[in-house]
Here is the input.
Amino acid sequence: MFSSTWNFLKRHKMKCIFAGTFVGFNITLTASQECLPFHFESNQRTCNMTVLSIDLICHMVITPRFHPKCRGCVQCVDMLIVLHHVQLNIICGYLYMDNSVSKN
Here is the structure.
């Protein structure tokens, strides 16, 4: 039984190498594609937690000080929080791209 398998592999050596390379490449590609959504969700969770902590600090510290003087202070704080959220997403995207390029 093993001799017939060995003879088959000898006869079809290049086909087996090509098929193994093709299957291995597809498995690697599929695994990297599965990691992208996980990275994106992890990035969003980190960004949301950071923004929520900034939001809490800003509303506790900034809003009580300026609220009697300025009605638009709450909107300014919210715009600042949205700006931080966007900046964190951009920075995390660049970090991910740098890491993925350096690994390849």
Remarks:
- The helical segments are 2-11, 13-66, 73-103.
- Residues 2-103 form one domain.
